[in-house]
Write a structure and sequence with these properties.
single chain, 409 residues, alpha+beta, 8-stranded antiparallel sheet, ApbE-like_sf, metal-binding
Length: 409
């Protein structure tokens, strides 16, 4: 099968535009498949951003697809393919991969299947499912279901919600109670203010206290019989940023399974769910990176039929009067956590892992051990800087959990 370079896919004018925009102008060695509006694989950030801005449908091309042996995804998780899968091409018909931008990040689906047509149909439906969930849960779309619900606060009577929004809210409520309030989707008013603080480079303590009146899980009541939600005070804003991505990952993986694709991985910005292991492998290999993502993974493990999520603040924070505040907010105080760290959580579903990664980032190494004593289904590893000194902690069940969630076909 013929291998094409990017310069052979784009016309000369677009190629020159890209060369000027690329961060790696003189080092382009990536190969691509462009189909519909999807990018099958990428190595170059500048190229990825450029392709998304191209007008009209993407140009189609058939080409071989070489994978690097260690492929980092955004966040503290990396997917490490073994040598047997280091070079993929259509003739091998082994691992197929497709990528699309959704939910403010890059969503990638990888599957071990010989049926390319089935893969395309299944992934088209999986991405459609992700788009539908994004429309329901987005904190940025003014017409999303969750923001339209928030605008009605305080609600004079319970408001019925869609099944997806109900599922996300009930699971968020479960983690809220289990984490002693460290995870709280009513944190939206604070999230909005802290975005402004970071843009301006300064925070306003008085404004924090003002908006905190609309924050608190006690202000949101869930009516299980009616699948309805009541918001008890005004100016509430539900923020599902710490759980919706995981829910979308689980939904996409479920679509693949329904199509008979049972050896697959769905990755959204470093949060990952996997089904069965690739053929001939002990599982999907994931690596945990520490505070410096440029360093080799601290831990590499094989996993299947489970999920892993990461949370950290390496790039989003605010420094004010000599103190560093993370973009990860503690809903109990109204402030960003003041310790820099990275947290990785393993759980049965991406929804659970996503929410708990956020919660544990707030709890830190001081509170997490006691909270997780009652959560045997959660395994975690964290590294935080306290007084500029790295402190690491792993849940006692981490080794056992990873062993139990090895290859399951």
């Amino acid at each position: 099968m013929e291998t094409l370079q990017l310069s052979e896919i784009l016309d000369r004018a677009r190629w020159e535009i890209f060369r000027r925009a690329s961060y790696h102008e003189g080092k382009l060695k990536a190969y691509w498949i462009l189909r519909n509006d999807s990018i099958i694989y990428w190595r170059d950030k500048g190229l990825r951003e450029f392709i998304y801005c191209l007008p009209g449908p993407s140009r189609g091309a058939i080409m071989t697809l070489p994978f690097s042996k260690a492929t980092f995804v955004w966040g503290a998780i990396c997917i490490v393919f073994s040598a047997s899968a280091a070079h993929l091409c259509a003739d091998e018909a082994s691992l197929l991969s497709v990528t699309q931008p959704h939910m403010g990040t890059i969503v990638r689906i990888v599957a071990d299947t010989d049926d390319a047509q089935l893969f395309q149909k299944a992934t088209d439906e999986a991405f459609a499912r992700v788009r539908a969930i994004e429309q329901i849960c987005s904190d940025y779309r003014s017409d999303s279901e969750v923001l339209l619900l928030s605008e009605k606060s305080p609600t004079p009577e319970p408001i019925s919600v869609s099944d997806d929004l109900w599922n996300v809210l009930t699971q968020a409520h479960t983690v809220n109670r289990a984490s002693n309030g460290a995870f709280d989707v009513t944190v939206g008013p604070l999230t909005k203010e802290w975005r402004r603080f970071r843009r301006r480079g300064q925070l306003d303590p008085l404004r924090i206290e003002e908006v905190r009146t609309g924050v608190g899980a006690q202000h949101m009541t869930l009516d299980e019989k009616k699948h309805a939600v009541s918001l008890g005070v005004g100016d509430m804003r539900i923020d599902l940023g710490g759980i919706a991505k995981g829910y979308a990952i689980d939904a996409a993986l479920q679509v693949l399974t329904q199509h008979g694709i049972t050896r697959a991985l769905v990755d959204a910005g470093g949060d990952i769910a996997v089904s069965g292991a690739p053929r001939g492998e002990a599982g999907w290999r994931v690596g945990i990176a520490g505070l410096d993502p440029k360093q080799p993974p601290i831990l590499v493990a094989h996993i299947s039929q489970c999920a892993v999520a990461t949370s950290g603040d390496a790039f989003q924070f605010l420094e004010h009067e000599g103190k560093r505040y993370s973009h990860i907010l503690d809903p109990r105080t109204g402030y960003g956590v003041d310790h820099r760290g990275t947290v990785t959580v393993f759980a049965q579903t991406a929804t659970t892992a996503d929410a708990w990664a956020s919660a544990i980032s707030v709890l830190g190494p001081a509170e997490t051990p006691q909270v997780l004593e009652k959560e045997p289904g959660i395994a975690t590893w964290m590294e935080v800087l306290i007084d500029e000194k790295p402190v690491t902690w792993a849940s006692p069940n981490l080794g056992t959990w990873l062993s139990e969630h090895g290859q399951k076909n």
